[in-house]
Amino acid sequence: MIKTIIIDDERLARNELKKLLLDFPEIEIVAEATNAAEGIEKVESMSPDLIFLDIQMPGKTGFDMLSELDKSPHVIFTTAYDEYALKAFEVNALDYLLKPVEPKRLADALQKLQLEEDKEPFQEGEIPVNRSILNEHDQVFVKDGERCWFVKLSDIRLFESVGNYAKVYFGPNKPLILKSLNALEERLDEKVFFRANRKHIVNLRLIEKIEPYFNGGLLLELKGSEKIEVSRRQTVKFKEMMSL
User: Which of 24, 33, 100, 116 lies at a CB distance of 3.0 to 4.6 Å from 39, suitable for a disulfide?
Assistant: First the structure.
């Protein structure tokens, strides 16, 4: 069983979440709290495996609460606001659910928890890094300078390496994020996102056209009209994946 505490100042939100969690028998709700101070007390006395944490609460925020805990359990944020998403990922939250919580998103978040639980425990001195696989229905937070987006992975058609950064293509936008393509590739579902060459990862669902290219490679045209060459080596892999 996964010992769980719900921390939210809205009684209706707590009740709604409890109702949704009835579909997940492995989740055992051991307590509820209505503010950060109460949350800290319950977490420290009960040592839960997981907390569902609201951000905007009277007094201290959910982030304040986390900063005061000696040892933090897994955290899934539940909030009505999406502007805190970047900060949520910075504190290594498992997921960030917007209210009203959708059953599908809740199921995805709990699947990430399962993946984390299945991993070997960290050695002392190791810094935990979120390496759970993101699926195409997940939303990710993208920030470039002062501009921020909360984007569904299925809407991202291309990641392009630019030095230590990656350019993220979705709609008319092409922001830069401080991530290497290798780090991104580790977290992306390989059935959806394909490493076409050293510099590009493409969304297979958003390929418009495929043409043979010189040296036995392929040329992909994406829905945004970008043309991406598939290296000869990756062409072999691409054909194996896409063949009947």
Answer: 33
